[in-house]
Amino acid sequence: MKTIQPQTISDLEFDRVLDQLAQKALTQGGKARCLTISPMIDAVAIERALKEVEEYKASIGSDQGFPGHHFDALTEVLHQLSIENSVLELNGFKKIKHVCLTTESIKRFLKKFDQFYVVLSQYADNIPYDDHPVMLIDSILDRFGQVKDDASQELLHLRKSILKVKSSINKSFSQALSRYAQADFLDEIRESIVDNKRVLAVKAMHRKKVKGVVMGQSKTGSIVYIEPQQTLEFAQELSSLLYREIEEVKRLLKWLTNALRPFVAEFTQYEEFLIQVDVWHAKAHYAHAMNGIRPLITKERTLQLIKAYHPLLLLDHQRQKKKTYPQSITLDQDSRIIVISGPNAGGKSITLKTVGLLQLMIQSGLLIPVDPSSEFCLFKRILTDIGDHQSIENHLSTYSYRLKQMNYFLKKCQKDSLFLIDEFGTGSDPELGGALAETFLEEFYAREAFGIITTHYTNLKLLANELPCATNANMLFDALSLEPLYQLFVGEAGSSYTFEVAQKNGIPYGLINRAKKKIAGGKVRFDKTIANLQKERSGLRNLSKSLKEQEQTAKVQAEELAQTQQKVQEKLERYQEIFDANQRLVTLGRKVDQLAERYLNKWTKKSLLDALFKLVMQENSKRTPKTKLSTVLSDPKNGASLQPTATSTKTKGLSKNEGKSNSAKKNKAFDQELKQEVAQIRASKKAKKQKEREQKPEEKVVFNLGDRVRMMDGVAVGTIDKIEKNKVVVNYGTFTTTVKQDYLEKL
User: Fold this and answer.
1) Is CATH 3.10.25.10 correct for 699-747?
2) Which uninterrupted H or E stretch holds 674?
3) How far apart are CA 326 and CA 547, in angstroms?
4) What pLDDT is stored for residue 494 in this prediction?
5) What are the beta bridge partners of residue 199?
6) For residue 234, what is the enclosing H or E element?
7) Backbone angles phi, psi at 450, to 5 degrees
8) CATH number of 151-249
9) 727: Cα within 13 Å, side-chain hemisphere
10) Pairing outcome for strands 736-740 and 381-385
11) pLDDT at 289 (0 to 100)
12) CB within 8 Å of 586: residues ≥ 6 apart
């Protein structure tokens, strides 16, 4: 975006964003490139830049992270290659090889995972790679960057000869050292190193007895350092070989330099590619730090920010572990201009800067901290007027600067522009400045430009209320404490709380009343009405919040109550089953007691056994496998874990505590209550069964003499001996019983 003013960059602090971005880069070239980033207007280029960063960001923390891309700049190396007959140093070749290998590594990585890095792999495919320069360097240099022995036949022969001569020098020196040491011509240290040569440490008194070249003496003069005559010839040969080696190395490096010189364009392209990778790295890590995402770029004239954070404020608050408040704001054809009002320190300017800075970032290919459902359209110009910008040197006042900016706005502000003005109309007489500001706003509105302004002027609030495609908004304040809530409310103008804030800060009430009398009553009433509306809205907001909390609490309590009722119902049903089982046991016990009494008085053993067998058969005829006493009493689900029933508890309590009438009354009351509950459950079950019978008509069963039958809730099988009206006599073999036909089923 070449038309953007440097002042806009400064007003929206986009330069600070670029400084923080550059700190994320790893190379000097990447840092410099980050500082030169500027907004674009081409939608295709912006989309591509955003997708590149989004794909790189996805690799952060993943198992398949991006390969390392750090490299040393090739600026000096490429400059030397451009000079004819120049020869690169060994470090220069190392830099070239590292850049080539790093480029090849990243291209290979992107090709391998091209399904994940679609846009990045497409970018890398446009960088042709030639491995010939690396092969040339490897033919001369080893992996440590030194010239290899076999770089040429001549060099290999020279280095072998050098090793052989060095071996001869060491051997001859050792012989001289041994001979003169036996002659006691040497000092205790015996030998030393002078000018990188081994020398004998000869006692000064014997210096003439040792043949060789004097290389120096000790500080005290007691030791003379002599190179033995035996090593001199080999030393001269070594010097000649070393000179020839240096010349051969120079020849090889010159040849290698000339061989690499045609690849200057490729090296430049590789370096540019790695710088671009470093820029992706910086953008991705900067976005990762603020949880930035890629919003929807729309061709429609719509700017919809949902839960948008100011990037600089967000990162600063993260370091301080403070909360940052997001803002949501929408600009479209039906609401092109938003006028934000309200008291100072409420966040109006931050909201204004958030919109402008995020717009600059998104058009610069940077991911931003907003909700993924946010939408951004593109603007060719972003015009800002934020701050006073006084200048003593240029004799420029605040109002003069604002007029100068408004003149620029009138020239440049069009349909594809976004203007952001803070404290619109200030710097001059409120009446006159407000009227001029109102005129400017009408002009921008007529040009269909998008814009956001902050103001305290009442006439601008009224104008925004009258214009169809303009909207009032305010920053919410707590009506009681007058503390800012840092939330934008669109659709209603805000009060400046001028007198309320003054009263809170200790200004005498009398002075405030005198001030109110000095201005028009209509303005006071208008501002007071706005303030009252904000107070009512604050109360409604708190009430709504309280009601939601109560609704949530009631819902939780209702769920808990339903669970409790379900548990009580299940427990009562278990009590009913246990109660019925105990009642049957009591009845059975009475019958057994009667049999025992009869046996005691007159019955024989056979009569007792016959009566007991008959009693057992009668009981079995009433049972089903599901209602057997053993099952009821042994199954924990049927209430066996409840221990004694009401009846047994009562009986046990009376037998053990006959004198405690209060305990007996409580047991009796509990027994009555339990019986009532059981009766209700029985009645409900009976009604339910009756309803099912009515809904499902049953076929009439005709019984005849001799039919095999059994009771519906029993297991014993008998035959019909006699039929009387709706009753039949069933013979079970050892006994007979009379049963209603409705209770029987035919087999």
Assistant:
1) no
2) helix 661-695
3) 24
4) 67
5) 192
6) helix 229-260
7) -90, 145
8) 1.10.1420
9) 6
10) unpaired
11) 94
12) 647
Rounded Cα gap, residues 480 and 535, in angstroms: 8
Look at the alpha carbons of 630, 631, 636, 641 in this order and tell me if their dihedral is positive or negative.
negative
Distance of CA 338 to the CA centre of its chain: 32
Q: What is the pLDDT of residue 330?
A: 93
Domains of the chain, by residue range, sit at 15-149+258-287, 151-249, 297-497, 562-696, 699-747
SS3 letters across 685-746: HHHHHHHHHHHCCCCCCCCCCCCEEEECCCCCCEEEEEEECCEEEEECCCCEEEEEHHHEEE
Nearest to 594, CA basis, from 613, 618, 619, 611: 611
Domains 15-149+258-287 and 151-249 share a fold: yes
Q: Tokens at residue 487, please?
A: 């939330």
The packing angle between helices 521-601 and 661-695, to 10°, is 100
The number of beta carbons lying within 10 Å of the beta carbon of residue 492 is 16
- Class (C level, CATH) for 297-497: alpha beta
The helix (run of H) or strand (run of E) holding residue 112 is helix 90-112
Would you state the structure tokens that stand for residue 84, as one six-digit string? 């004819």
Q: Which three-class secondary structure string do you get for 517-577?
A: HCCCHHHHHHHHHHHHHHHHHHHHHHHHHHHHHHHHHHHHHHHHHHHHHHHHHHHHHHHHH
With beta carbons less than 8 A apart as the criterion, state whether 336 and 300 touch. no
Residue 291 is encoded by which pair of tokens?
A: 């949880």
Residue by residue, DSSP assigns 430-467 as: HHHHHHHHHHHHHHHHHTT-EEEEE---HHHHHHHHHS
Collect contacts of 7-10 with beta carbons under 8 A, ≥24 apart.
7/384, 7/389, 8/356, 8/360, 8/382, 8/383, 8/384, 9/360
Q: Which helix (H) or strand (E) holds 677?
A: helix 661-695
Find all residues with CB under 8 Å of 402, minimum gap 6, and list them: 385, 426, 427
Give the position of tokens 């803002």. Answer: 327
CA nearest to 371, candidates 311, 255, 291 = 291
Q: Is 486 left (phi over 0), alpha (psi -120 to 50) or beta?
A: left
Express each pLDDT in 667-716 by its tens digit.
Answer: 566 567 666 766 777 677 677 767 766 665 555 677 788 788 887 766 67
Residue 636 has pLDDT above 50, yes or no: no
Going 497 to 499 to 502 to 504, the CA torsion angle's sign is negative
CATH class of domain segment(s) 15-149+258-287 = mainly alpha
CB 353 within 8 A of CB 310: yes
**Nearest-angstrom CA–CA distance, 240 and 426:** 87
Query: Residues 117, 122, 123, 124: what is their CA dihedral angle, to the nearest 10 degrees?
Result: 80
> Regarding predicted confidence, which is higher, 377 or 529?
377
Distances (CA, A) of 16 to 21, 128, 208, 670: 8, 36, 78, 79
**DSSP character string of 635-664:** -GGGTGGG-S-HHHHHHHHHHH-TT-HHHH
Residue 633: name the closest of 574, 578, 713 by CA: 578
